[in-house]
Design goal:
The protein contains two helices and twelve strands. With 176 residues, it is mainly beta. It has one domain: Immunoglobulin-like (Sandwich), CATH 2.60.40.2970. The termini are far apart.
């Protein structure tokens, strides 16, 4: 009898782990009429959006990216046309002002973060060949927050979610 209860509890625990994550994360670049996902590279100000959506039925707190707690919570997996795999992460920062800061997403609410991928002060790993007009990369975004003392105290969500791997075309603007 005890063995059956243990097996039932183990099975229930495995089912609980397989539950849908409370957050969805995506790169907010939709396909154009030709089915291409275009990201324009126009110098240091080039950005693309990352969307985080609360799909649970309760509010969730997420570390703000400007502070050290959230600084590396968003990262990217990249794969070139030749199969080369790399990662892009927030650049290492010198913190002159730092404290645990979060934002709260209500159920069904989304937040959008603009990723200034060409700014090497903010990001490392987005290396695009300068001699190509278009660079084709497969990419996914990963949101990963690890539990720590401050996160537990402030009830910040922890876990890892990732988007699908999609193909993007980084297009360099023509200089006039």
């Amino acid at each position: 009898m005890r063995r059956m209860c243990f097996i039932a509890l183990l099975a229930f625990g495995l089912q609980a782990e397989a539950a849908e994550p409370p957050l969805l994360v995506s790169i907010g670049v939709t396909a154009d009429a030709n089915g291409l996902r275009l990201i324009h590279v126009n110098g240091k100000d080039a950005t693309f959006p990352v969307v985080i959506t609360n799909v649970s039925d309760k509010p969730l707190r997420i570390w703000a990216q400007w502070c050290s707690w959230g600084n590396r919570s968003i990262q990217f997996q990249l794969e070139g046309a030749d199969g080369t795999k790399t990662s892009a992460v927030s650049a290492v920062m010198a913190w002159t002002m730092n404290f645990p800061d979060f934002y709260e997403l209500k159920p069904g609410e989304s937040s959008v973060t603009d990723i200034a991928f060409t700014d090497s002060y903010l990001w490392s790993g987005f290396t695009l060949p300068k001699d190509q007009k278009t660079t084709k990369l497969s990419m996914r975004v990963i949101l990963s927050i690890h539990p720590d003392e401050d996160g537990i105290r402030l009830n910040v969500w922890n876990g890892t979610v990732q988007s699908e791997m999609n193909t993007y075309h980084f297009v360099r603007e023509q200089k006039e």
